Amino acid sequence: MAVSEIQLVRVTKRFPGGLVAVDNVDLTVGSGEVMCLLGPSGCGKTTTLRMVAGLEWATSGDILIAGKRVNHLQARDRNVAMTFQFYALYPSLTVAENLAYPLHADRLSRGEIAERIRRVAAVLELGGILERRPHELGEGEKQRVAVGRSIVRSPTCFLFDEPLSRLDIQLRQTMRTQIKEILEQLDKPTVIVTHDQIEALTMADRIAVMRDGRLEQVATPHDLFAHPANLFVAGFIGTPQMNLLEAVLIGTEGGAANGQATGRFRLLGAEIIATVEARVGSLARESPVTLGIRPRSFELVDPAASGALPAKVDIIEPMGAEVLAHLVEGDVDLRCVMPHTTRIALGEAVGLRCKPGQLHVFGADGRLVQ
Amino acid sequence: MAARVLSRDVRQAPRGWAAFATIVSLIYFFPVLWIILTAFKTHNDALAVPPKWLFTPTLENFIAVFSRVMTYQGAAANTGFDLFFFNSIFIAMTSVAVALVLGTVAAYGFSRYPLKGNDTYLFIILTTRMLPPIVVIIPIFVMFREAGLSGTYVGIILLYTAFNLPFTIWMMKSFFDELSREVEDAARMDGSSEIKVFFKICLPQVIPGLAATAVFGLILTWNEYLFALLLTGVETRTVPVAMGQTIGGAIGVRWGLLAAIETLFLVPVVLVTFLLQNQLLRGVTFGTIRR
Amino acid sequence: MVAVAPGIRTRRRFLSLSWSNWPLALVAAVVVVALAVWLLPADSAFWVSLAAVCVVAFSAVAYVYSRRLNGALLVAPAVALLLVMNIFPLLWSLGLSFFHYRASSIQPPSWLGLGNFAKVLTSPDVWDRLRTTGLIMVLTVGCQLVVGFLLALLFEKRFVGRRVLLTLVLTPMMLSYVAVGAFFRYYYDPTFGLLSQFVRTFTGEPFLLLNTPWGARAGIIFADAWMWSPFVMLLVLAGLVSVPSYLYEAAEIDRASWWRKFRTITLPYIRGLLLLALLFRTIEAFKLFDVVFLINEGGPGTSNETIALYIYRQSFQYNKTSYATALTYIVLFVVVVLTNLYLYGVNRRARETA
User: Fold this and answer.
1) Are C334 and C225 contained in the same domain?
2) What global pTM score does this model have?
3) Angle at B31 between CA B30 and CA B32, to 5 degrees
């Protein structure tokens, strides 16, 4: 067993009244790893975090921190540090006193406490506001104090509940980088709860996507993006949202030499051809599938080209270096992102083809075929 | 492997707390309880030495509240307490209602159209609430006597309304201050008149405030003694004054009767308080607590 | 009267005779009142003054109406009622305190200037009553704060039956003073009273409470504190309940001890409210009349006569009307000072926990 690690084994939380907030979650956060719990509101991510902290009891399953089963331990006995969404700064204490608060339990000397505060203040640039009270601080300052209160200790792990949700975009970007640096230095298992995928994708070593209390997929940001395990994850990760199109598999050709084959699909009345995973060939002919194509995975071709999907340009949204185009075919809306130098006009008929290797095929059960 | 199902809520009391709280509450409630028990006792039981815990309850006191059997003739005479109860209810409710109307409108004015020196006006208004009644008792007594308001409903209702106004204005203003103006602005842009905005948008949102104010006003006027003593007449007497007279009788206090009166008198207030407990909490802090 | 567009200030001449010229009305009213008081018997002077005040009020309303100051219009009815019922009598009392006047005699009031105030401030009786009032006040408010605080701690957490028990504990506040006074007198009665009988099981002698100054004092304080501790409880409870849960959770995570949590989180939230309770109950205790009167009529003798009771007796039993009003003004002054403190406390609290 690694020195410090968080393990959740078949953890379930059922509230009185019947609501199952967390359903059989299995998760391991390695020492020094940053794990993000990502998902829409109500998916159980905060409840999971609170169970690790000891602010909620688990109904069943095991929670282990540093190899020790902590289910029955109170929060104070688990030696975890947590940054709350609403910062939870003690209003009657100064910033310095807030930072020192958790250290009293460690029975450190005055000098030691002062030294630690000084170090944390230097890292988070809190030097000028140490004598202020929370109600005199700005939003960003409050957030840094909250983070500071966590890192001033030596806990077994760090927990963050939506740490950046209350900051504006500018501050968010700055704090993202800053927190990431700090976490790398501290090298303890960290769990961050967030509903913002950008945050998760940039800060996490691995992301656990949750929905309705269940884990949908646990993977690195890259894998999550490149190989989403099911329709939910595929639609959740990536902006603009992935195009999810219902189609019918006509058949596949080609060898499994490089794991790739050529698939033929009937989509929106047209027959399209694209490179797919060889495993797609295991599906029966004429079976219904869902095709997942990211907006940046399209290339424009002549509408009459074979294997291409014809569509008409409906709306063009300039986004600076790129352009988001909405194309319509039938009653389906397709999102397509291309460099701003691309020449397209409203109402123009174009043909779309998926770049090789970027077509995701989801079976009738919603799972990725790979 | 199974752990406790209970939510780890910091606000939940530890086990056994309910039992402890029950004991303490009952001890605190004991004097009131004794009054209620006494209401069901005969006169002898009430004065029993040592005190009787177990006794045969009787309703004779409750009946006696409303009619007294004359010792010479057999017919029961009306003690007039049904009138007194009616007076108390009528006077309290009317004055609270009028104060609510005037006070809420005024609070809306203070809140939405702040004048220069708003704070000073509000301070003066609050000071009138803090007045020792003694200070105004004489002029008011003279005023009422000269204006013929002494002993009338109108007089005492006007007075109690003036008592309830400061508190009403303060409470309702704090509630109005907390409303978000955006909804109102949207309605104004949609062409609603100011009156419509007030009734359809602002008022529904401050109903808890109205409830709290009403409860406090009720409690205040229900038990008021001094002014009622001096300014109500035979027809308009309220229950507290009548109770005082019952005590002052030459026969000595009929405790059972008194207890019955008080028990009956207690019921409406307790009912209202029980129903509007949450609002009470807010009212007591003059709206300074943000929920 | 010229209709004016809202906000536009026209130059009104001071002497222009129109209903909306309220400064003129005010000046005229003062003159009329002074003349009336000087020349007319008290009763007529009273009514003339009231009429003058009404004229001023009316002109203020007309002014407001002509300028379409909506806010003032909304506020007017309430303010008018308060003026008539509270402010006017207050001013009248103030005026009266400068005269020598007895309600029982038909003699008109004679000017005494500050004579009444001098008499009041040098009267040993007055100081004695003030001392008594202060003593009772300190003791009863102290008890209320302690008991109320403890009760609030009891009811802070959620448990089964909390709502019902809370209502039970609130009932003392809702009893009529008459009932409390009468029944506590009954409880303290040496023959039938529960207190005496309870003591008698130990000592075998009936227990007399109300016949000594300190005994009566204890009786009053106990009854009053019992009645109003729930009020303090409500205030403190509101504070306790308003503490956000996540502060306690953060303190849990930070491994703070029970005492630490109380000192750094709970206490700051309720400190302001305790102060509010202190001031409010102090102001109310200053006005203490009903309980004292009904338990023992301020006895034995006058040993427990509070200042309010003293004033009442002076006005209605001894008919020393203007003397009494002078005294009430001194009391009022103290109350105003306390109210100021109270408001300051309220504002500070609103700022601190924003």
Assistant:
1) yes
2) 0.74
3) 90
